[in-house]
Amino acid sequence: MSYSYDVPASGSRHVMRLMPLSLSNRQRLVAGSITVSPTPDEQSHFVDFFQHPATSFMLRTPHEMLDIRMQARVQVESQPIAADFSPLLADLPEEISGVWSLAPDSPHHFLGDSPRLTQAREIGDYARGCVTPQLTAMQIAHALCARIHKDFTYDSDATTVDTTPLEAFRLKRGVCQDFTHIMILALRSLGIPAGYVSGFLRTIPPPGKERLEGADAMHAWVRVWCGETIGWIELDPTNDIPAGMDHIVVAYGRDYSDVVPVIGVLKSYGGQRAVQAVDVIPLK
């Protein structure tokens, strides 16, 4: 990930969330490193509310570019196929009310509006088109994932990082961030807790498999709470698949604002350009 500036920045401060997580029965970070050029004048590490390790750094000297490189080795575990013991939609509020915890993975944090996501009637109407009385929360989540994949076109030129979910919804085009935000809003409009997952996708598909959309950059997908028995599941609406062996988790949040890979401020003027590249290669 690199940034170049038309006019040298006289100083900057940034926060990074790039290192994959270690998650019980899901994935293990074996080793990892992040290098920043120019070398930061100050650097510190902290853990945010959602328990993600983050790094803050400051550059005081003028610089024309900023280059950030992350390397990691991650062991990913295969996920068993879970039977659907999720409640019917009408019974889900009772299960949510039975959760007294406000820990980072509590469903209560993922029901209402969040910094980038405000309920939109059009998206709520769209979501209700996937609901019938006999469907469980998990079935509704899978139905919405499939519908978004069918109705929307992956187009990296159609939107930017600041495009709102409603704008992308009306375009019916966008990238993984757009599809993820739309699906989160759709689920929340139905009273189903949903959050944002930031991570990486396997770059080169296995023999005989199609290449997944979004594999050349950081990817995003959806985390859905399906009741006390099932808990959280993860679905990728960009590719209409459950998150599995090809998905590596970096961060969980309510929306993109909680998991931005690199965010910061700088002293400069003029334009800037950003280049992002990702390679996820299985080790033999």
TrEMBL record:
A Pfam match: Transglut_core
Transmembrane segments: none
Protein name (record): Transglutaminase-like protein
Domain of life: Bacteria
Organism: Rhizobium etli (strain ATCC 51251 / DSM 11541 / JCM 21823 / NBRC 15573 / CFN 42)
Domain Transglutaminase-like as annotated: residue spans: 168-239
PANTHER family assigned to the protein according to its UniProt record, in alphabetical order: BLR2979 PROTEIN, BLR5614 PROTEIN-RELATED
